[in-house]
Write a structure and sequence with these properties.
alpha/beta, Chitobiase, domain 2, TIM Barrel, 3 domains, 6-stranded mixed β-sheet, 24 helices, 16 strands, binds beta-D-glucopyranuronic acid
């Protein structure tokens, strides 16, 4: 720390002792720091909270408002009956609300949608926050708090918001031993060993954070599910968590192991067509609902990466999903059945989910939804959208994103994922003509009678700042905001998050926002530009290992399977002369992807094996282009370091320092990526690295020796 910063630091200790010590990131975007008095002046007419319904959720809403106000202005809002200067919160059944809003409007309020309105009546000023459901009112309150911080909409509020998806769900890949698969923020939040009797205060904080962004569901355990989770011993623990989450509007779901009837039920098999198995699931589900009456349902990874499934008995995914769906149906429970499967013989891995699931369209029960990863392979820095979106007409489909950065530098790299999420959601599948975006297929616009949901693999753990990297919190935030409204721009979401999490000073906001908005493309540039994919180190997926060869490993777990580098060029031929994965896309996309001159350059090597000297749109060769991309990724990270160092005066020393250290790691890793990929691919291209870019720093042979000690299977 520089001398003058040290002085400011010591001085500020006296000014804001509490806020300074709390800056470990644990308060997320819910910090409620003082707002300028000119801004709060606009709200001076707000003095009370009027609430006339008894409800745990509305109590939470009132308390949140009061706490926020205390933070913003130093004054709590007191609870009072309806009077001048009240924020009136409630459902459409509230007498207060009925007195202030027209009947037709109240009747039109549905589900979790909410309304926020400034109302003048009898010379009195009210701010009304109402919904058909208590949790909708809670969302409205959080929205109002956000608007105050954004300094928007004062005085004449007239807002109606409705979520785009009915189920907005996090998937925790948390194991029962409290390790987290692909988790980079410490151990699991769920302290199974002390549940159900001891409840960590973080359970409530977790629920509150999710409610603040509209997330209303959570899968507690890893998709690689242990059958144990369905034993009575664990179900009472799950119930304890569900009880904490309920008033925040969050439903609990569980990932289940398809072999549970055999593993923990003592049956001889788990064949879905065995009546004993069906009976076992019915009884198990009944037991679950007797403990958790609003239980959400099951998430299932079956016949994938060695997990059991219906195919073990010669049955289909539909047979498997339906047996669970039938058990859950009487209680309104849902089955989220994952399409992440790739065991279809020699087929291109990118084609397999489609090949398995399209023939089953129409065979699933109504309460089954197919959970599809955003891309056809596996959460890569960039993939095209999965061709399954739009290909199932009769079966509801949902997206699965990955917030945890398995393939994006763990919690060491600053990568803002809203642009990636939006890239998928805004992709036009052309399934129902032009404009059939993934968002419209999954949010009910094009499949109006279907279940709607959106999911993402969480990046949350026990770390004080929840996500490992302070900026990784933005990805949790962005997922929630987009699940609520996928039409929000990545920029808008970043803007909200930065202002609430760090500072409202534009000297901070503007440069940091520009860094966030370009960060995903930057990572693509230094890891896998032009559509290269899966050139990660084996197992842990942290660094580059395009050369990786593990005797006996599945070919489709190895980088060579994907990059196909040889003396003629680079990339996977998925055109009609190759694996023909392009044929799984609707027209005109199939034609566009198939044609090297029309294929978007950022997916070129995904779909084509491209000669090293192929002329790209900018007139340079593919090889040169590749080199410039890697170089640009490295240069961008160095820019981010400079941006970050410049904003030091605007934020607390602790978060400043922690992000600064992570950026150093990222800058180091970017050079590692660039050298590893370029030097390795150069052994095939036999062309020089353009002379105007930075020379490689490492020797390929040295890079090949790097073996990180991290345990993971593929
Ligand atoms: C892969 C992960 C693996 C997961 C799998 C899945 O490497 O840990 O179990 O996806 O989604 O990306 O099931």
């Amino acid at each position: 720390m520089k001398q003058n910063n040290l002085a400011i630091f010591i001085f500020s200790l006296f000014l804001f002792p509490l806020s300074l010590f709390a800056e470990d990131g644990s308060r997320l975007w819910l910090r409620y720091e003082p707002l300028p008095s000119v801004q709060m002046e606009k709200y001076k007419y707000l003095i009370y909270i009027a609430k006339d319904e008894k409800s745990a959720t509305l109590d939470i809403a009132a308390n949140e408002l009061s706490v926020a106000w205390e933070g913003f202005s130093g004054k709590r809002l007191s609870l009072a009956s309806l009077q001048n200067g009240a924020v009136v919160i409630g459902t459409s059944k509230s007498k207060n609300i009925k007195a202030l809003l027209p009947k037709e409007e109240l009747e039109a309020l549905k589900g979790e949608s909410f309304l926020i309105r400034s109302v003048k009546k009898g010379g009195n000023n009210y701010t009304v926050i109402a919904s058909a459901k208590e949790v909708g009112t809670l969302y409205g309150v959080f929205h109002f708090i956000r608007l105050v911080q954004m300094d928007e909409g004062f005085g004449h509020l007239d807002i109606k918001e409705a979520p785009k998806y009915a189920i907005r769900i996090l998937n925790h890949w948390d194991n029962l031993d409290r390790t987290v698969e692909r988790g980079y923020a410490g151990h699991s939040l769920w302290k199974w060993e002390e549940l159900p009797n001891t409840l960590s205060p973080r359970y409530k904080e977790y629920a509150r954070a999710n409610a603040s962004i509209g997330i209303n569901a959570t899968v507690l355990n890893n998709v690689n599910a242990s059958p144990e989770i369905l034993t009575e011993n664990y179900l009472v623990k799950v119930k304890a968590l569900a009880d904490v989450f309920r008033p925040y509007g969050i439903k609990v779901y569980l990932a289940v192991n398809f072999s549970s009837p055999k593993e923990i039920g003592g049956l001889s098999d788990s064949d879905p067509l065995n009546p004993e198995v069906a009976k076992w699931w019915k009884n198990k589900v009944k037991e679950v609902y007797s403990l958790i009456p609003d239980f959400g349902g099951f998430l299932v990874k079956a016949n994938s990466e060695g997990l059991p499934g219906p195919q073990d008995y010669g049955r289909t995914h539909a047979d498997g999903a339906n047996i669970l769906a039938d058990a859950l149906n009487p209680y309104g429970g849902v089955v989220m059945w994952r399409a992440f499967v790739y065991s279809t013989g020699d087929e291109d891995r990118a084609k397999q989910a489609y090949l398995e699931f399209v023939p089953l369209d129409g065979q699933f029960r109504d309460n089954v939804i197919i959970q599809i990863k955003n891309g056809p392979v596996d959460f890569q820095p960039r993939e095209p959208f999965s061709p399954l979106f739009g290909a199932l007409n009769k079966t509801p489909e949902m997206v699965e994103f990955q917030i945890t950065q398995e393939y994006l530098g763990f919690s060491n790299h600053l990568v803002y994922l809203a642009p990636l999420f939006k890239e998928t959601l805004d992709s036009d599948t052309y399934s129902n003509g032009s404009g059939s975006t993934v968002a419209k297929i999954t949010d009910g616009t094009l499949r109006p009678d279907k279940l709607t949901a959106i999911s993402a693999v969480a990046n949350i753990g026990e770390d004080a700042n929840w996500c490992g990297h302070h900026f990784a919190q933005a990805n949790w935030y962005a997922f929630g905001r987009l699940a609520w409204n996928h039409q929000l721009s990545a920029e808008r979401i970043a803007d909200e998050w930065i202002r609430m999490t760090f500072s409202r000073n534009n000297e901070f906001v503007d440069p940091v926002k520009s860094m966030m908005l370009t960060s995903r493309e930057t990572v693509v540039d230094y890891m896998m530009p032009l559509g290269i994919h899966h050139v990660f180190a084996f197992g842990h997926h942290y660094g580059p290992e395009p050369w990786c060869d593990v005797p006996g490993a599945r070919p489709d777990w190895l980088p060579k399977y994907y990059h196909k580098a040889d003396s003629t060029g680079l990339g996977f031929n998925r055109t009609s002369t190759g694996s023909n994965a392009v044929s799984q896309y609707f027209s005109p996309l199939n034609g566009i992807y198939n044609d090297i001159s029309r294929c978007p350059e950022n997916l070129l090597l995904w779909f084509h094996h491209v000669p090293w000297d192929y002329k790209m749109k900018d007139g340079k060769t593919m090889w040169d282009n590749l080199c410039y991309k890697y170089d640009s990724g490295v240069r961008q990270i160095r820019e981010y370091q400079k941006i970050w160092d410049r904003i030091e005066p605007y934020i607390d020393a602790r978060r400043f320092g922690e992000v600064q250290s992570k950026l150093k790691i990222q800058a180091h890793d970017a050079v590692w990526w660039k050298d590893a990929c370029l030097l390795y691919f150069q052994t095939f291209s036999k062309r020089p690295v353009p002379y105007d870019i930075e020379r490689p720093v490492y020797e390929l042979e040295d890079l090949k020796k790097i073996k990180l000690d991290m345990n993971h299977h593929n």
